[in-house]
Amino acid sequence: MNTFNHLIKQINFRIIVVLIVTILVTACNNKLKNKVEQEHPNITQLKKNSAEFTPEIIKMNANVYVAVGYDGSNAAMLIGKDGVIIIDALRALGAAEKVASEFKKISNKPVKALIYTHGHLDHTGGTSAFVGTEKNVKIIAREGFKKELQEHSPVQNILEKRNGRQFGRNLPKEDIINRGVAAGSTSKDRVNKGYIKPNTFFKDSLFVNIAGVSLEIYKANGETNDALFVWCPKEKVLFSGDNYYKAFPNLYAIRGSKYRDVKSWGEVIKKMSTFPVEYLVPGHTRPISGRALVNNNLKNYSAAILSVYNQTIDCMNKGYSLQQTVDNVKLSKELASQSNLQEFYGSVQWGVRSIYLHYVGWFDGNPTNLYPLSSKEEADNMIELAGGEKKIFKNILKAEKEGNYQFGLQLTDYLLNVNYKKDEVSKMKIKLLRKLASQQINAPARNYYLSYAYELEENIKQ
After folding, report:
1. Distance CA 353, CA 368 (A)
2. Once rounded to an integer, what is the mean pLDDT over residues 346-369?
3. Edge-to-edge strand order for the sheet containing 111-115?
4. Quick one: CA dihedral 389, 393, 398, 400, positive or negative?
C-alpha cells in the first residue's frame, strides 16, 4: 500500500512539473509572439489618421458643405441666391457623380461656377459631374494653370512610376493604411474623364459676385505655382486648396516635382491667418470650425514652413553641406507637437533638401563632390576597405538583427552595385525596406518602401 501511495505521489508530481513547464513555455512563446507582432507607435498613429477620410458630407453652416472621403481630395459647395458654386472636382468621375448627387439633395439650384484651387488631377478630374448640362458656367483658375504639372513633363514616364510608389497604388490590400492626406485606396471609376478646361483666368486676384455671393480669390504659390485660395466674407469660410491640410506640408514630393516655393507658401498661409475665418476648408482632410482654432492652425502652419525655410538658408550661409543642413534643421518642440504638423504626408528633411538644391543646385560647395567616384567604383573601394563582400554581407545581417535598418539598406547597395549574390542581397534589401516601412509615420515614404520591395520581388522571380 505504501508503495502504491508513493507511486501515485510520483505521478502527481510529474504531472504538476509538466503542467508548470507547459505554462511557462506557453507564456514565453506568447510573450515572444507579442514582442514580434507589436505594432510600432508610428503605425498606430498613422492608422488613427485614417479617421480623417471617412466619407461624409459635412455641413459647415446653412450654405457651405464639404464632401470628404469620397475620393483622394475634397469637393465643396457654396450655396447662393440663385445657384451654387463648387470648389474643386475630385479625380474620378464616378466619385464626383456620387458627391454631385449628394449635393443635389441639399440644393437643387444650378451650378453657376466651379473653381479649381490648383491643377492637380485629384482636384480636376470630375468636373462634368457637377456642371452637367448647365450652360455659361464659369470655370475659374489662375493663369498658367496646369503648365508645370506632371502630364507636361518630358520625364513623365518615370514620374508616373514614382507617383504609383508614393501613393501605394499597386500595394495589396493588407499593406494599405492611408496616403497621409487621403484614404489608402481611391476611386478608379473613369479617372480624369470629367475634366473641363477653365474659361475664366486671373493673374493676381479676382473679386467676383456669383449667384449673389461675393468672393475674393487670390493667387497662392505653394504646393503648385498655379494655386489659389478662396475667401467668402459673408460666410466667413476660406478654401485653402492644398496649401493647407492637417499634416506637415509636402514641401517636396518624392514622386518628383519642380521646386515648390517654400517661402511663398509660408507667407500665403500667414496671409490666410489675417482673415476672420470661422470655417477652414482644406483640399484634403476634414474641415476646421471656430475662429480661434482656425487661426491657431494657420499660424502654426505658417510658422513651421517659414522656420524650415529660414533655418535652411541660415545653414547654407554658414557654409554647411547639404547633409549638415539636413542634420541641423528641426522644428521646435512646440511646433513638432502640434496635431496638424505631424509628418503624415510631408517631411522636414525633404523640404530642407529641396530648398538647398533650389538655391545652389547639386554642388554643395565641398570640392570632394566635384567629380565623385561612380557608384561601382565607390562600392569596390568600400568593399575592399571593409574586408570583402562576405564581410559586408555579414554586416548587413548584423544591421538587420540589431535594428539598424537604414545602415543595412545602404550596405546592400554596395553589393548590388558589384552584382554580388544579387538575389540573396536583393532579398535582404526587401526585408530591410519592409522593416523601415513598419516604423514609418510618413505615408508616402511607407508606401514607397513597400512598393519598391514588391518590385524587387518581381525582378527576382523573372
Report:
1. 19
2. 96
3. 56-61, 64-68, 75-79, 84-87, 111-115, 138-142, 200-202
4. positive
Least confident of 67-81, 142-156, 297-311, 400-414: 142-156
CA angle 199, 205, 207 (to 5 degrees): 80
End-to-end Cα separation, the chain, in angstroms: 74
Range 134-139 average pLDDT: 93
CATH 3.20.20.300 is held by the domain 48-360: no
Which three cell numbers, joined as nine digits, stand for 419? 552584382
Strands 205-210 and 56-61: unpaired
Give the closest residue to 273 by CA, choosing from 335, 313, 205, 220.
220
* Residue 87 to residue 96: CA distance in whole angstroms: 12
CA angle 66, 68, 71 (to 5 degrees): 125
pLDDT tens per residue, range 24-37: 555 555 554 444 56
Nearest Cα to Cα of residue 88 among 72, 109, 106, 101: 72
> What angle, rounded to 10 degrees, do the helices at 443-461 and 156-166 form?
110
pTM: 0.91
- Retrieve residue 81's grid coordinates: 441666391
- The confidence score (pLDDT) of residue 30 equals 52
Q: Of 23-37, 138-152, 286-300, 387-401, which gets the smallest average pLDDT?
A: 23-37
Give me the helices (H) in 108-155, please.
Answer: 127-131
The rounded distance, in Å, linking the Cα atoms of 444 and 248 is: 12
Q: What is the pLDDT of residues 243-276, one digit of tens each?
A: 999 999 999 999 998 899 999 999 999 999 999 9
* CA–CA gap between residue 426 and residue 126 (Å, rounded): 41
Does the 373-461 domain belong in CATH 1.10.150.130? no
